[in-house]
Amino acid sequence: MSDIQVTLGQTSLGPRKIVIDPVTRVEGHGKVTIRLNEAGEVEQARFHIVEFRGFERFIQGRMYWEVPVIVQRLCGICPVSHHLCAAKAMDIVAGVDRVTPTADKMRRLMHYGQVLQSNALNFFHLASPDLLLGFEAPVAQRNIIGVIEAFPEVGKWAIFIRKFGQQVIAATGGRRIHPRLCVPGGVNQNLSVESRDTLRGDVDQIIEWCCEALELHKRFVHSHEALHEAFASFPSNYMSLVGADGAMELYDGTLRAVAADGAMIFEGVRPDQYRDYMVEEVRPWTYMKFPHIRSLGREDGWYRVGPLAQINCCAFIGTPIAEAARKEFMAAGRGGLVHATLAYHWARVISMIHCAETVKQLLFDDDLQGTDLVVTGDRRPEGVAIIEAPRGTLLHHYQVDEHDQVTMANLIVSTTNNNEAMNRSVTKVAIDDLTGHEITEGLLNHIEVAIRAYDPCLSCATHALGDMPLIVTLEDAEGAVIATRVKE
Amino acid sequence: MTPESVATAPMQTRTLGPPRSCDQPRVLVLGYGNPGRQDDGLGPAVAERMEALRWPHVTAYDNYQLNIEDAVEVAEHDVIWFVDASRTGPAPFTIEAIAPAATLEFTSHLVRPEAILAMARQYYGRAPHAFLMGVRGYEFEFVEALTPAATDNLRLAVEMLEKRLRAIHRPEPT
Prior knowledge:
A: alpha+beta, Cytochrome-c3 Hydrogenase, chain B, 20% strand, B: alpha/beta, Rossmann fold, 5-stranded mixed β-sheet, globular
């Protein structure tokens, strides 16, 4: 496990704190603080996310069968992930350990369609300007329009892979927005033959476009190998769901955690065992929790989740094109794990391929037209479920009383799992790029590139107009502002 | 429109959208925000009310936030009304004409309306006239209802929008 260390020294300048306040939202705000030591060198950096914890209280008192619908209010990017994770937890509460094949496959189809379209948004809209145009390209050009000008086909892939994923969600959930597929113990509907045939007609094109996106991205990787390996990077632990056979598994399975050297930390951990293996630490300077692996302790037990972790943790991918891509990806680790932070994007495209292949497999499974949709069982007081959301491991834990009302909710979202890792990446960038006490455009740019790899969710479902500036503040040791820079 | 049709059709020469009716401008009202966060639901509420009118030249839908695929819908219309809640500024609402402008954010949880217009223009070769309406909201807690003051602003915003859209509406030929 590497840790980022800097040498302490003395300077007449004294400690300095650089604050980057990238976004302000209704429920709080995120900002980056870079703390300098007495020598004026970077000591540490923190990516603050003022996470509004009220949502868990909002769920309390709700009837348990309402929760899979209500939790979609949590996130505007991945409401489907919360819908499915809550449904899995409420299956347990409903006394159901195994839903019907039709219910299981309908949920999987929705989930893989969701992960596909969410990863596509990240890769094409957020990452591709940095990767395809270069980090140092002018800001005015480094955006999705600049990408489309340089690579016209990328815009087509972006929009229509997204739209395909939305079509899968609409076909499974009844509607594109606010889908209502799941109920505790099963699903509301099967897949119509008409929807199936429409999606079948498009899925091969989607797989092909995902593969073309991978080839385009690999050209960036191979032409910038040193940058790709070193930028904002460090060895770390990783955690994700895997299947019983070790395969990549995004919908169900058990938790596996591996150390930076590839050694197994734990595996086969069921969702209801999470508190035996993980600790959710609270720190005074942020509302976000810092989960870590119990056996490794606070200092060494942090880990990364998301596409990079999903590939580092699994033994193989169960779809052929993605598996071939995984093998090529792992070769970059020279026999070990891949630790490059920018490799999140590479892994994300492989995940897109896997999702598209899985969607295709499901579309040719007749169970999707089955009519056995819901099973029942004996009510239980508690349910825990885990799913691999687009940004990584997502956990929902509920307790329900005898009146069917939720009395406790605990959610560990992907961004929370990546909390410490994002701090480390920002610290690495600051160490590499900060010179003097000026927040340069280049430093800002690189910090944003690092954060984009994780694509943090800031309890994002609220987007009131007028609250999105990038504010950069330079403060002295007493907190007095030396300089402020605002990026609208 | 399917991905296959996109794959084979040359860009910028594709026929977009449904057949136009007597050259009537096609209007899209796109409301966004989270109805589970009190007044942040103003955008979806406006879209819902405009959709309820069922005017043939008006399409209305809502979402939690804007997404890149909205560029397709945007490109298929002549006039776009993006409707969002506003935390600051005058009540009951503000209206601003907006133009295509691409930006790069640090999170995918933000896509601006100007960026959607830029994608529509870049990809389809046309950018419709567009307005951003900010309806003033006041409370943004985890409550699935608008505040009374925001409800008043919603009513005034819908009245104004109805008036504007009625002005460009022409009856179907008989």
